Amino acid sequence: MKERIETALEFLKEGSGFPVGDLRLSMKDPQTVEVNGWSNYIIFSNINKRNSLKELADIKRIFNDMVEFSDNLKKFIADKSIEYNLFYDDGGKASIRICFEKGGVMYWMADVE
Questions:
Q1: Where are the domains of the chain?
Q2: pTM for this model (two decimals)
Q3: Which residues pair with 20 in a beta bridge?
Q4: Fold exhibited by the domain 2-108
Q5: Is the CB of residue 97 less than 8 Å from the CB of residue 86?
Q6: Residue 45 pairs with which residues in a beta bridge?
Q7: What does the pLDDT look like over 42-88, one tens digit per residue?
């Protein structure tokens, strides 16, 4: 895992994205790191706000574990905003952003109940 995080850091410094475990880390802009994860739900109609919030919390927890594991990642993000994204993937045909959190504020992109 440490090697994947270090490799991801090199990509992030160049403005590119890189997968680490179940997440994909990328740079939205020079001051914003995107932490992208995908819903475990296969059928879109099964997605709701409650389970989306849980999945987004899991994304944040996994990323925070990475930060605790890597001092270099911790230093890299120290002066940056973090945007956490939850996507739905329908088997590789399309990826739909369900919701995201930035600066502690939730934004809903998909119409889920």
A1: 2-108
A2: 0.93
A3: 23
A4: Alpha-Beta Plaits (3.30.70)
A5: yes
A6: none
A7: 989 999 999 999 999 999 999 999 999 999 999 999 999 999 999 99
